[in-house]
Design brief:
The structure is a single chain. With 388 residues, the chain is of the alpha+beta class. The protein has two domains: 99 residues, Serine-tRNA synthetase, tRNA binding domain (Helix Hairpins, Orthogonal Bundle); 257 residues, 2-Layer Sandwich (BirA Bifunctional Protein, domain 2). 40% of the residues lie in helices and 19% in strands. It has ten helices and 15 strands. The chain has a seven-stranded mixed beta sheet. Strand 9 and strand 10 form a beta hairpin. Helix 5 packs across helix 10. It is elongated. The relative contact order is 0.11.
Length: 388
């Protein structure tokens, strides 16, 4: 716990250093100063009342021994007692409030510790030079693979979506606290995944079943508040408020959707295969699946730095769940009764986590990182990234 005297003697410096540890932390300094001021107001009143009551006690004792009246002295003593009780109650409240605040505050960072990302705060990152180029290389590699070899149509969607779109895919109303809503009168949210715009491209439409399945792929940044994830992956690049992802979404006839789920999952796996990264694919149980999913495969890549596999893609068949919410139907032969389509989605892949996997799995003894063969055409032939 921090020394309470710091908030009285070095308030400005402490506020600055606390602000470096997290948004809003420096705001507690003024409150602690006020509490310290109130405490210092109470103490002399309390001590004076205690001293006066003690002195009266001696006077009352002497008066009784001398046979003198004590009524006035007793009344004065009761007044001092009331003052003491009130001051002690105030002091207890101040001390408890101050203690509770102090327990919430982190230690002050040493002056040698670098200050975190000043542009947006915690859970955001900045990539520069070769790191930024490697991230862009991964995006282009993934998009090229999915569009040229897997038959997906590339889409560049908006990075904002309205309530109807987020309701269609299942983010609203259940997961509103995980979204960043645009302030003001706008009915818009920052998208948590490109699945939202891609799965709403045909909202309210009736598709021709003869052209199904439809496959779309998009790169977007994704924005999530990660509400409730405090303490879990709060450091590094694993879990951030903004991250890049290449997403795959498919519209399918019901009788094709589970075969298509296997195919879509294989497309995500091929990214890792081409990059030479070890991975495993697992079927999620009922309690682990996402809200909209009927069946989900998680693909987990090996991260040496953590000594474990970590999720890098989640591929799901939502069957007609999203289609009912978004009113997306098809006519099997282009005519006849319209039925709800099945929608599928999968990360192809999460770019930041793929970047981590490449850096950790391809790091060499001297600290340099060898570029996987599949990425070298996107890095202007660069074979090794060395520390600058």
């Amino acid at each position: 716990m921090l020394d309470p005297a710091l908030f009285r003697d070095e308030a400005t410096e402490v506020a600055t250093r606390l602000a470096q540890r997290g948004d809003g932390l420096g705001d507690h300094v003024a409150e602690l100063r006020d509490l310290d001021g109130e405490r210092r107001e109470i103490l002399p009143v309390l001590e004076a009342a205690r001293h006066a009551k003690k002195a009266l006690g001696a006077q009352i004792g002497k008066a009784k021994r001398d046979g003198e009246p004590t009524d006035a002295l007793m009344a004065a003593g009761e007044e001092h007692g009331a003052t003491i009780a009130t001051a002690e109650a105030r002091l207890l409240r101040v001390e408890q409030t101050r203690q509770a605040l102090l327990l919430k505050l982190p230690n002050l960072a040493h002056e040698s510790v670098p200050v975190g990302v000043k542009l947006a705060g915690a859970r955001f990152s900045v990539l520069k030079g070769a790191g930024a180029k490697l991230s862009r290389a991964l995006i282009n590699f993934m998009l090229d693979l999915h569009t040229t070899e897997h038959g997906y149509l590339e889409v560049e969607p908006p990075f904002l979506a309205n309530t109807d779109s987020l309701t269609g895919t299942g983010q609203l109303p259940k997961f509103e606290e995980d979204l960043f809503k645009i302030a003001g009168d706008w009915d818009l949210y920052l998208i948590p995944t490109a699945e939202v715009p891609l799965a709403n491209l045909h909202r309210g439409e009736i598709l021709d079943g003869r052209v199904l399945p439809l496959r779309y792929a998009a790169y977007t940044p994704c924005f999530r508040s990660e509400a409730g994830s405090y303490g879990a992956d709060v450091r590094g690049l694993i879990r951030q408020h903004q991250f890049d992802k290449v997403e795959m979404v498919a519209y399918s006839r019901p009788d094709q959707s589970y075969a298509l789920l296997e195919t879509l999952t294989g497309h995500a796996e091929l990214v890792l295969q081409r990059l030479g990264l070890a991975y495993r694919t697992v079927v999620l149980c009922t309690r682990d699946m996402g809200f909209a999913a009927a069946k989900t495969y998680d693909i987990e890549v090996w991260l040496p730095g953590q000594g474990q596999y970590r999720e890098i893609s989640s591929c799901s068949n939502t069957e007609a769940f999203q289609a009912r919410r978004a009113n997306i139907k098809y006519r099997p032969d282009g005519t006849g009764k319209a039925e709800h389509v099945h929608t599928l989605n999968g990360s192809g892949l999460a770019v930041g986590r793929t970047l981590i996997a490449v850096l950790e799995n391809y790091q060499q003894a001297d600290g340099s990182v060898r570029i996987p063969d599949a990425l070298r055409p996107y890095m202007n032939g660069l074979e090794v990234i060395r520390q600058q």
